[in-house]
Design brief:
Layout lengths: L1 E5 L8 H16 L3 E4 L5 H12 L3 E7 L4 H4 L6 E5 L2 H10 L3 E4 L4 H15 L7 E4 L6 H12 L11 E4 L2 H10 L9 H8 L1
Parallel strand pairs: 1-2, 1-5, 2-3, 3-4, 5-6, 6-7
Helix pairs in contact: 1-2
Length: about 200
């Protein structure tokens, strides 16, 4: 599988996040998955990609060309894809991946994760998104989704594509085992069938 890992360029002070990113990168490589990610060697991006490469994994870095050449070339990868913008990077990662993992991170990580969630909600895709819940990082987000449903802004039935796990190995297994809903397809196809 091609698995995109959404993560930031910040290096957290809590070493649990670093250990989890390392284990995820190694597990991706050992299981024969291709890692796609944001292309930097900074923060958790560098941790997960380096771990995958050390285990002999295939790593695709997708990086906007407006970064300096030094930054672009700073992380050894199996394959480097240059894109024009952050939006194009996100679009590339989503289009070329079978599943996604969001590591604990900041607003950029959430932006990428929400893009996948919206596509699944609209029926534009049926790709699972795994939240690596290290140190219960995503519990507040899950509570917010429940609050959104209570207030009438979200339907938690769409969360079937959202997988919450604390252990990287267990998360990868659930992503691998995920089966899309045969009754859900592209929005345009569903609308054509109704007319």
């Amino acid at each position: 599988m091609n698995i995109s890992v959404f993560c930031g360029a910040s290096r957290p002070s809590n070493t649990q996040y670093i250990a989890a990113a390392t284990l995820l990168g190694k597990s991706l490589a050992r299981e024969g998955h291709t890692l796609l990610y944001g292309g930097s060697n900074l923060g958790l991006m560098g941790v997960v990609s380096s771990a995958a490469l050390e285990e002999g994994g295939h790593v695709v870095g997708v990086i906007p060309s407006f970064f300096s050449e030094e930054i672009i070339q700073s992380q050894p990868v199996s394959e480097l894809v240059r894109v024009a913008s952050m939006a194009e990077r996100k679009e590339y990662l989503i289009a070329h991946s079978d599943a996604f993992v969001a590591l604990p991170g900041g607003i950029g990580t959430l932006d990428e994760a929400f893009e996948v969630m919206v596509a699944n909600q609209l029926g534009l895709s049926q790709k699972p998104l795994g939240l690596l819940d290290t140190n219960h990082f995503y519990q507040h987000l899950m509570a917010q989704l429940e609050h959104m449903e209570k207030e009438g802004f979200y339907n938690l039935t769409h969360a079937k594509y959202l997988i919450l796990e604390e252990q990287p190995d267990r998360l990868l297994q659930r992503l691998t085992d995920f089966k899309p809903d045969p009754d859900r397809g592209h929005v345009a196809q569903r609308l054509r069938h109704k007319s």
